């Protein structure tokens, strides 16, 4: 009696493997797309860090008077000036008076990989000294509260001076959610 040996895979086995790969791809692709947008939006956080340094140094030097002066000096250049923009950052502006919130707007022009519906969405940074808005008698270092359209992380850190931005939280870095 002759015995036949099976060689290779059957059609059903191949179809099962293809189906499994298809399901995994369907789940992974949207998560990966959100991740890539979040990575690009993180440039807004980096762009805001130079302004945060300016404001922190001004507060350490002259308190709230220094914050007012630094905000005024920074805002003399328009928010959309090329020195304040990049491939992913549309504009940067600082509130001229209390609470001195820094607003960084995301640029989504259809060419940079960020969905156009996010164009102009903001991430905000608000200064806190000992967990509150700085006042003339405040002493200590500034701790910055970052927020998108939610401020869960800043609230957990007991920061009271928080200004919500407009960018959807799922696209913001975890510190700004």
UniProtKB/TrEMBL annotation:
<keyword id="KW-1133">Transmembrane helix</keyword>
<comment type="similarity">
    <text>Belongs to the N-Me-Phe pilin family.</text>
</comment>
<feature type="transmembrane region" description="Helical">
    <location>
        <begin position="12"/>
        <end position="32"/>
    </location>
</feature>
<keyword id="KW-0812">Transmembrane</keyword>
<dbReference type="Pfam" id="PF00114">
    <property type="entry name" value="Pilin"/>
</dbReference>
<dbReference type="Pfam" id="PF07963">
    <property type="entry name" value="N_methyl"/>
</dbReference>
<keyword id="KW-0472">Membrane</keyword>
<protein>
    <submittedName>
        <fullName>Prepilin-type cleavage/methylation domain-containing protein</fullName>
    </submittedName>
</protein>
<dbReference type="InterPro" id="IPR012902">
    <property type="entry name" value="N_methyl_site"/>
</dbReference>
<dbReference type="InterPro" id="IPR001082">
    <property type="entry name" value="Pilin"/>
</dbReference>
<dbReference type="InterPro" id="IPR045584">
    <property type="entry name" value="Pilin-like"/>
</dbReference>
<dbReference type="GO" id="GO:0009289">
    <property type="term" value="C:pilus"/>
</dbReference>
<keyword id="KW-0488">Methylation</keyword>
<keyword id="KW-0281">Fimbrium</keyword>
<dbReference type="GO" id="GO:0007155">
    <property type="term" value="P:cell adhesion"/>
</dbReference>
């Amino acid at each position: 009696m002759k015995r036949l040996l099976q060689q290779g895979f059957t059609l059903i086995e191949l179809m099962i493997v293809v189906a499994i790969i298809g399901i995994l791809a369907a789940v992974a692709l949207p998560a990966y797309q959100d991740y890539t947008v979040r990575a690009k939006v993180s440039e807004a956080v980096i762009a805001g860090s130079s302004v945060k340094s300016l404001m922190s140094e001004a507060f350490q030097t002259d308190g709230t008077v220094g914050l007012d002066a630094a905000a005024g000096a920074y805002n003399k250049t328009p928010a959309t000036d090329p020195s304040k923009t990049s491939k992913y950052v549309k504009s940067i502006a600082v509130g001229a008076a209390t609470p001195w919130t820094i607003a960084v707007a995301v640029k989504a022009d259809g060419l940079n990989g960020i969905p156009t519906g996010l164009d102009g969405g903001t991430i905000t940074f608000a200064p806190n000294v000992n967990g509150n808005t700085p006042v003339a008698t405040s002493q200590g270092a500034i701790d910055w509260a970052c927020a998108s359209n939610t401020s869960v992380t800043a609230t957990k850190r007991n920061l009271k001076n928080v200004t919500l931005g407009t960018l959807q939280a799922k696209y913001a870095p975890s510190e700004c959610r």
